[in-house]
UniProtKB/TrEMBL annotation:
The lineage of its organism: Bacteria, Bacillati, Bacillota, Bacilli, Bacillales. InterPro entries: HTH_CRP, NagB/RpiA_transferase-like, RNA_pol_sigma_r3/r4-like, SorC_transcr_regulators, Sugar-bd_dom_put. It holds the Pfam family Sugar-bind. Keywords: DNA-binding, Transcription, Transcription regulation. This is Sugar-binding transcriptional regulator. PANTHER family: TRANSCRIPTIONAL REGULATOR LSRR, TRANSCRIPTIONAL REGULATOR-RELATED. It comes from Paenibacillus zeirhizosphaerae. Residues 1-57 form the HTH crp-type domain. PROSITE patterns: HTH_CRP_2 (PS51063). Belongs to the SorC transcriptional regulatory family.
């Protein structure tokens, strides 16, 4: 190897691997800065240096297509998150979902929404769209007896504001203490009308909950210790406060029969059943929801998407 090649490789190592400036390299090698610039160009021209740029966005469509095929979905939207951290992921997937809804919602659509921090994040990022005759309806009871904020009213109001309409509330607890009490309340004609509107919704937007100790529904105090233990042992997650196992099957008919709001079977019939979810802690629940065919559109991030493929 001649001296020019040796110096070019040395300059390239210092510049590309050790982050030396061209001025620093010139001083170290005892040459001028323009000479260093020529050395670096010589190293590239001779193939001593190969530069590759990894674009994290370019593979997203391929991953989305793979998930779409595996789980039989109509559409998969995979967004880029700079970190595999739940709050960061939530911020990016909620923006992706809000943008999707802004593009998709048309006059006279009926949009069913749920609550929780992800849904609130989606609602906060919705842009105003001048549509006519859109209706917004809560898909499950939004009244909580706990100090933990579910953002139920705020979420449905922000959806209504974005699409220039009024919100239809389901002003009830999501889970009653007894089946008889729940059935009696559902006999009320006003309540029945809201539940029926939820069934008629052509777009449903929801997230998925986990059965981990810190799950929102557990913190709201709806379950006895025995019920919570049973759900944690048999369940994988919940949608609209209806718990299912890893195969997407309801894991407690008794609890399900005390739950107010849309049935999971009705979600399968929606024109657009949009699941917005991501993060390491939710992967089991998301996979189970997709196996159960409760969503036909998934909005997630690249970390979660890759996990769903394994």
């Amino acid at each position: 190897m001649d001296e020019k090649q040796r110096l070019s490789i040395e300059a390239a190592r210092l510049y590309y691997l050790s982050d030396y400036s061209q001025q620093d390299i010139a001083a170290r090698l005892g040459v001028s800065r323009p000479t260093v610039s020529r050395m670096l160009q010589h190293a590239k021209d001779r193939g001593f240096v190969r530069i590759s740029i990894i674009d994290p966005l370019e593979d997203l469509d391929a991953v989305a297509e793979e998930i779409k095929q595996i789980y039989g979905l109509d559409q998969v939207l995979v967004c880029y998150s700079p970190e595999n951290e739940y709050r960061v992921i939530q911020k990016h997937i909620s923006k992706k979902a809000a943008d999707y809804l802004h593009e998709t919602v048309q006059d006279s659509d009926i949009i069913g929404v749920t609550w929780g921090t992800t849904m609130h994040a989606v609602a906060q990022q919705l842009e105003s769209k001048p549509v006519r005759g859109v209706e917004i309806v809560q898909l499950k009871g939004g009244v909580s007896h706990s100090h933990v904020n579910t953002y139920a009213a705020e979420t449905v109001n922000l959806f209504a504001d974005a699409f220039h309409t009024i919100a239809r509330y389901l002003p009830l607890p999501v889970i009653f203490d007894s089946i008889a009490l729940k059935q009696m309340v559902e006999e009320d004609r006003h309540i029945r009308r809201i539940i029926e509107l939820g069934k008629q919704a052509n777009i449903a937007v929801f997230t998925v909950g986990t059965v981990k100790e810190d799950a929102l529904l557990f913190r709201l105090g709806y379950f006895s210790a025995e019920e919570q233990t049973h759900l944690q042992q048999t369940g994988a997650g919940d949608i609209c406060s209806r718990f299912f196992d890893k195969n997407g099957q309801i894991c407690s008919e008794e609890i399900n029969n005390r739950t107010v709001g849309i049935d999971l079977a009705d979600l399968k019939k929606k024109e657009k059943s949009v699941l917005v979810a991501g993060g390491q802690r939710k992967i089991d629940a998301i996979r189970a929801a997709l196996v159960g065919r409760y969503a036909n559109i998934l909005v997630t991030d690249q970390f979660t998407a890759q996990a769903l493929l394994t």
